[in-house]
Every structure is written in C-alpha cells, then in structure tokens.
C-alpha cells in the first residue's frame, strides 16, 4: 500500500515556489512518499536534533556527564580558521531562561532540553562548545544521514564567510529522528530520554498544527527568513509510528510556510496506516 493523500498535494507544493522537500515513511526501510528528499537546505535550528543525539552518545561513551555544569556565556570561538570570536544576540534567541543564567552555570542535561523545547540558540552553542562539531559527523553517519552537515555554531558569521555552514535534507532529518525513535542511535534508555524531550516541544506551529489535538509527535523545527523546516516522529494510537520531514526554502511569509507544513502533516496523518508500514 502507498500513500494517497500526500501525492495529491503536488500542485500545492509546486505553487509554493522555491524548494519544498518532503520525506514520510516508516522508522526503518524505504519511505512511502518523497519529494526532493535529498535536496540541500540551510539547516536553521533543525541541526539541534543532531546536537542532542551526539551529546547523549558522548555521555554513553563517558566523554561528558549529562548533569555536569557548564558556564553560561555569550561569546564563542568561531569555527573559522584563526582565533576569531563572536558574540551572540539575546534578541535573536527564542528562550529567555538560558540567558537569565548568563554569568552562572547550567547543567548540560537542562541545556539540551532548552535547546529543543524552546530552540535556545545560546544553549546550542554552549553544548557545541562542550562536545565539538567533529563528533556530530559520527552521529549523522550512524543514523544514515549522509548529506547533512553541522559545521558551526549559531551566529558564527566568520565561519559562514569561510564556507562553513549547516545543511540538511528532508531525508536525512527523517532518518535521524527515526534512529532516535527506533532506539538505534544510542541506548534504549537514552533514546527514550531524547524522545521525551522531543515530545515536550513547545514550538508547535507547523507539523504539530496539522495533527488532531492530543496526537503525540516528537519533533524539532527550524526557521529563519525564507526558511521553515519541521521533522518529527508521529506516534498514532491506531497505526505504527512514522517519520516525517518537510523542508521549505521559499519566499513565503513564515505564517504561510507554517500552514504549508501543517497541510503536509495533515495529509501524512490521513495516510498514517500506510506510512508506518515497512515497504
């Protein structure tokens, strides 16, 4: 059986202009529906899901402690060659709680949670400073995310100028979240803890908005000007779980892009009995 409602959105997705990528399917095996699943997009905050998974994997390896305190500061060393440093902007963040701890400390586990549920940029850079970007490549490889790249922290303009950027595809994002949900990327205990964080997501204006109220979705989204992405694992009560990722790089206003993601999510929900079935 194959999805029937998602293909019906072809004209709608074409009309959005730009590049709209979709991946929907079971947690393992081939997808049930794709549209430009390997097309690269600027990552925005979806890269934070890879940071989350990597931190938990490093905790398993004994390289970090999830409850260790990290100093909270807002200046960081650039990923660009040399000794460039950059300062972050509170106004560019989505979470005041991390900034309230500036000059103090915060546990790594708490920062990971804020990085996901409120998409905290400051928490993300603090975690990245602790774990480094090199370890993320191993996480992505083991998840089967072969095209996704996380090369720098947030607001690192010098790194961007040096050609270092964060890129995702819909396919890779879906594979990463599926690997967490399917307990393949880390221990069952740590994958379940990551799923709990992703299920507590408070930014629910895109994929989650297309689902019936109360539907469980473990997800992460990301947005900047002309970019709106969402990736998640939906856990229906009456069907197997399925992974869905939608990446949009368009000229749509953000509210319209959110509505588009919600429409795709609603179509995937209508196809849920097919999406979660291995091919």
How large, in whole angstroms, is the Cα Rg? Answer: 18 Å
Which structural class fits the helix and strand makeup?
alpha+beta
Average pLDDT, rounded to a whole number, is: 97
Biggest sheet layout: 5 strands, antiparallel
Low-confidence stretches: none
Number of helices: 11
**Sequence of secondary-structure elements:** HEEEHEEEHEHHHHEHHEEEHH
* Strands, count: 11
Helix content: 25-40%
Shape: globular
Q: Quote the beta fraction.
A: 15-25%
Distance between the termini: 8 Å
Q: Strand arrangement, largest sheet?
A: 2-1-11-10-9
Write down the oligomeric state: single chain
Give a structural overview.
This protein is α+β, with helices and mostly antiparallel strands and 279 residues long. It has 11 helices and 11 strands. The protein has helices spanning 10-15, 48-60, 96-99, 108-117, 121-131, 134-143, 157-161, 170-181, 188-199, 254-270, 272-275, and strands at residues 19-25, 33-35, 41-42, 69-71, 75-77, 85-87, 105-107, 167-168, 216-224, 227-235, 242-249. It has a 5-stranded antiparallel β-sheet with strand order 2-1-11-10-9, sandwiched between helices. It is globular. It starts with 9 loop residues before the first helix and ends with a helix.
In a few lines, what is going on in this structure?
By secondary structure, this protein is an alpha+beta fold. It has helices at 10-15, 48-60, 96-99, 108-117, 121-131, 134-143, 157-161, 170-181, 188-199, 254-270, 272-275; strands spanning 19-25, 33-35, 41-42, 69-71, 75-77, 85-87, 105-107, 167-168, 216-224, 227-235, 242-249.
